[in-house]
Amino acid sequence: MKDLRPETEAELAEIVRDTGEPLRIRGGGTRPIGVPVNGAPLTTAGLSGIDLYEPGALTMVARAGTPLAEIEVALAAEGQRLAFEPMDHRGLLGSEGEPTIGGVFAANVSGPRRIQCGAARDFLLGVRFVDGRGEVIRNGGRVMKNVTGYDLVKLMAGSYGTLGILTEVALKVLPKTQVTGSLNCEGLSDEQAIAALCRALGSPYEVTGAAHMQAGPDGTPRTVIRIEGTEASVAYRAGELRKVLAAFGEFSIDTDPDSTKATWGAIRDVQPFHGTDGDIWRLSVKPTDAPGLVARIDGAEALYDWGGGLIWLCVPKGTAGQDIRTAIAKTGGHATLIRGTRGGGVFQPLSPPVAALQDGLRKRFDPKGLLNPGLMAPAAEATE
To answer: What is the pTM of this model?
Structure first.
């Protein structure tokens, strides 16, 4: 079936008003995550272009289908960036297409710097979207001091198009830093690495990345800590962090721009698991619980980000999802299946009260059940 591709917001609203069947909504098609939706494919790629960019105000307004690469080129020309460094899923999922700024916010895609600056949703100032009745809704503002409708703006981030189809986003941007420094240590166990990352994050030295790869580029475990700023600041903080972490081993310091960019790009995009055969899970847990959880899952390989709070897990294909969620239930947290067998479901089942809240929101914004039906998490089974 050929994609529906509206070129204007009004055309999109008309499609939603007139349709009698579900819609399978996507941006650039690079993040095919979730339960397959049986419906007419609709892409927002036709809604493209930067409508407003004010570098001095650190704000940008762009239509939802604007390629992420176009956004980043415009920002780079002014020495600015998307501080939450959104992940590119194509290598992990084997997908094609071009990521869009609307898709980034619809999935709330956030990278390693999330521990320091916040998630994608924290940079979203305002939205325009078409709800399930075909009505155009505008919420929020175009400047950082305007918080009108703040909760609804945040609600759209991470809703995967189930509450409305984004047509425009207003976002906050930040200046690029002058220097990036990475502290690297080879050969630490998972337990040692997470302890070191927690120590670094608890220090006053403004860590902006904290990750551990069970298998680095040469196959050796590699623990990496990032600091950013001026040359003098990075040099001082790196030296102080080495003292703080001395008990864990020798940390080298890398400030080469190409090398640090490659390192953190690999962590952001989960490069160690590109081209692998296993199922890929994304786990959110208490950092200190992370090594023990991974150890309880047979055949698991892990990349730890956010100081251990985020685990990218590769397990043998067909591993029961229930086994993953049983392991995580012992410590708390949630698990999302990013790639692989769906026997255990894609999203972490919600508690009945939260599921009822989710259903209520969907009925309010999409009363006919047209927008990506069946995509979000189900309610957990009641237990005694």
So the answer is: 0.92
